[in-house]
Amino acid sequence: MLFIVIPVFNRWAFTEACLRSLQEQTQPDFRVIVVDDGSTDGTGEQLRRQFPEVEVVEGTGQLFWTAGVNAGIRRALQQGADRVLTLNNDVVAAPDFVERMLHWAQRMPTALLGPLELDVHTRQPVYGGEVFSWLTHTRRDLLATLGPEERHGLHPVTYLPGRGLLIPAAVFAAIGLFDEKRLPHYLADFDFTSVARRHGFPVYINYDAHLLTYPEESGQEQTRRHRSLQGYYQHLFGIRGGGNLRNFTHFALKNCPTPLVPLFLLNGYARRLTGYFLHG
Question: Which string of b and e fits 244-262 if b means at least 16 CB within 10 Å?
């Protein structure tokens, strides 16, 4: 049985649209767990009223993404999940999203799979996976290298984001859950999929499954939209900071090949210290 786990905090309109899209799936054989981490906008009441079939796990208000998704995964595994799909609330699933994810999951039962992401407004691809070089600290964007005739099926990648990540239960048995202690918010998904890949679980982007996203709603985009010294501090040290130096250090020490760690850290620190103001 597939369980879909969605951590949420407020932003009910996004959660409602996401859940409506799941109700319209061509493959309805799954269960949904929403981890409501102390929402104050009526999310809990709306969930009970509009989506009684959805199981709600209550949070403390301090879970952030990683502990929130872990709480849902634990509950799913307790109920016998053989696959878990982690989903952010600010996404809309194409009607055949689950069907196309399970199509490849059944053929690649040990693989972790992520979907092709499209801009919800324009329907243009915005994320199609990447292959990362630890030596040069550069990413090869598959959207930029794959021709139109190649944009289908599975393509191997270095890691995957957690918004639409399909995970076999065997992965949790082998490596545990997401690292909520060291990576409470950002990089936990890239870390988890990188660790899984090193333990022999293939990691693929699935170009046949489409997820609609709101690129402008990411925490990093909102922080950079109104640049300030306070925002810069949050960028580097806040739990939700996309350039959090502590989180990056943990990620590097866990995943970078040991001989490359010093160079990788220096490169990464420089990018984070300067990138907040340089990048649009």
Answer: bbebbebbbeebbeeebee
